[in-house]
């Protein structure tokens, strides 16, 4: 989530976001809610720190709600742009991973290193994927296909960058 660009809004009831392609999307704010029950007598006995502690206990719920909203939004965007690769419940394979990368725009650092995307996954799935990807690194056929894909993406990136309009 830290790699997702964020802009703070301080007023209003709607927003417009323009993406890198110039497409503007309008939306309204979504509400995060939770319930906090406090026994008044306990609050009187323990004081304001008790309320602060109880509020902090509920913070993870807001994080879960926010993460779910981000996931839903990403699902909407990928469905709309056709960037969905369905594994149909099967384990991810090297060819499926390469197909996912093929559908994505990949950027490169000033040193020419690919900036591969970050994938959202549960901790369990994330660990399984890390293990699989380390295993794939020993497969020469996979490494060759990945290198070819990276080279194609590098050329696409160069083409995009050379046609980019610079602003003063």
Kindly describe this structure:
52% of the residues lie in helices and 8% in strands. It is mostly helical and 168 residues long. The model has no long low-confidence stretch (mean pLDDT 86). It is built from five helices and four strands. It has helices at 40-46, 48-81, 94-102, 123-136, 140-162; strands at 14-18, 24-28, 107-108, 114-115. The chain is extended. The longest helix is centred in the middle third of the chain and has 34 residues, at 48-81. It has two domains: 14-81, no CATH class; 94-162, no CATH class.
Radius of gyration: 22 Å
Query: What general outline do the C-alpha atoms trace?
Result: extended
| Quantity of strands, as a count | 4
Strand residue percentage: 5-15%
Mean pLDDT: 86
Into which percent range does the helicity of residues fall?
40-55%
Report the uncertain regions. Answer: none
Order of strands, main sheet, comes to 1-2
Could you give the order of the helices and strands?
EEHHHEEHH
**Class from helix and strand fractions:** mainly alpha
The number of helical elements comes to: 5
* Gap between N and C termini: 31 Å
The major beta sheet can be summarized as: 2 strands, antiparallel
The tally of domains stands at 2
């Amino acid at each position: 989530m830290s790699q997702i660009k964020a802009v703070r809004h301080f007023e209003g009831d709607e927003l417009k976001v323009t993406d890198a392609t110039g497409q503007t999307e309008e939306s309204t704010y979504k509400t995060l809610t939770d319930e906090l029950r406090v026994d008044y007598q306990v609050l009187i006995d323990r004081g304001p720190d008790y309320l602060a502690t109880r509020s902090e206990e509920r913070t993870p719920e807001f994080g879960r709600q926010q993460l779910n909203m981000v996931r839903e939004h990403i699902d909407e965007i990928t469905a709309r742009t056709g960037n969905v690769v369905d594994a149909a419940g099967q384990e991810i394979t090297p060819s499926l991973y390469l197909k996912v990368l093929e559908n994505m725009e990949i950027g490169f650092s000033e040193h020419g290193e690919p900036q591969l995307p970050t994938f959202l996954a549960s901790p369990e799935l994330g660990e399984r994927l890390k293990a699989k990807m380390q295993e794939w690194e020993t497969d020469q056929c996979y490494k060759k296909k990945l290198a070819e894909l990276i080279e194609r993406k590098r050329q696409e990136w160069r083409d995009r960058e050379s046609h980019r309009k610079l602003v003063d």
